[in-house]
Specification:
By secondary structure, the chain is of the alpha+beta class. Helix content is 31%, strand content 29%. It is built from three helices and five strands. Helix 1 packs antiparallel against helix 3.
């Protein structure tokens, strides 16, 4: 498995719009082969930040998702309201509640 966790900062007053776009991305990814989890979150003490945690079957599945027309269109719409993207932390999910048990970690 392959995971990513990162923070995206919206321009002033645009956090809710960015959250809306990212939640639409989550809906698109429900039907995307290889996407196991895509979670969008926010913190009450940060009016600009949005957190995204993704778990994929493989890193290649994640890369392939970025070539989908619907995903590229959503990125194009969201990009103007993004002020900054902090470097994502990549990790190897090893298991836990909500993750499939029958997928071996990527080596």
């Amino acid at each position: 498995m392959y995971g990513r966790f990162g923070k995206i900062r919206a321009h002033d007053g645009q956090r809710e719009a960015l959250i809306g776009h990212l939640l639409r991305a989550a809906e698109l990814l429900r039907a995307t082969d290889g996407c196991l989890m895509y979670v969008v979150g926010s913190a009450d003490d940060d009016p600009h930040g949005v957190w995204v945690m993704e778990v994929w079957r493989t890193q290649d599945d994640h890369r392939a998702s970025l070539t989908l027309d619907a995903v590229k269109a959503l990125i194009a719409v969201a990009r103007p309201i993004i002020a900054a993207m902090e470097p994502a932390v990549e990790f190897t999910p090893l298991g836990g509640k909500g993750l499939p048990e029958n997928i071996a970690p990527q080596s």
